[in-house]
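Weekly modeling sync, notes
Attendees: S.R. (lead), two postdocs, one rotation student

Agenda item 3: backlog of single-chain predictions. S.R. asked that every request posted to the team notebook include the full sequence so nobody has to chase files. The rotation student volunteered to paste the first one in as an example of the format we agreed on. Action items at the bottom.

Example entry:
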Amino acid sequence: MCSRRSHVFGLGALLAAAAPCSARADQVDAPVAQRFGELARKAEAAFAQAGPGAAIPLYEQGLAGFPDDYGRIHLRLGQLYQQLGRIAEAAAHFKRCDADTRVEAIDRELICQDGLRSATVPVELLELPPEARVLVVEPLAFAGPLKTGDRLPLGSARLLVEAPQHDRRETTVRVQAPAVRWKVELGAAYTDETNAEAPPEPASKASRRWPALALGATGLALVGAGLTLGFMNRGGLDDIRHDQSTGACGATHCRGDLDSAETQGYVADGLWMGGAGLTAAGVGLWLFQD
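Predicted structure, as returned to the notebook:
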């Protein structure tokens, strides 16, 4: 165990010390304490040669060798990150150290808890509606729901506000001592889509094509009627010509028949030409809707 004399000088003296506290006083079995001792010797040798940046990767890699997240390693990582001025990382490791009750109580109190308090400040959420909530987006080590009184590391934090019938609103907040008092602002309000009138469903392909089918069918019917009437009219006209050639026409009989046949011819032409136009329009509308 570290000499308690180091605690007299507070956290600053502890951070200046290169050697970590021993795990012998922690509530862990002998193999865990021995494994930590081996890891600490390697990491602190690297620290002595190249500083905190060389020791940190060894401690972080060493965490994988412990079945449970060992707070003693987080204690040392918190100290090293704080020496580098990386406050968010230091605070996250001090927090995880304090959560591990296997670490000796006095070390958790004087190193982990004091380290967490020096690296973070409490946040007070002002005018937070009861149905809304605030989430920490960054720093990632503190991501998740944020309540009044929770602590965030010094620096900046990205916060997300969520509330029913409001857009999400993201804000960057400056976190500085002694505390943060932040007024919560909701995003823009919107209408609940579940209560809004449902938009009309798009018409099916078949229902969209019925006008084209109707035009085409009508056109074909008119063409057929025009051709039939024209064929019949041609037969009548042949009879009139025969009567004329044989002298069977009276004074006015053939002229009246000729006028009637001429009218029927115009009607027949109008029917088949109009039908052809409608049929072409129907085909074009069908192709346009594909």
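Discussion: group reviewed the output briefly. Residues 1-19 have pLDDT under 50 and may be disordered.
Action items: rotation student to repeat for the remaining queue; S.R. to check formatting next week.
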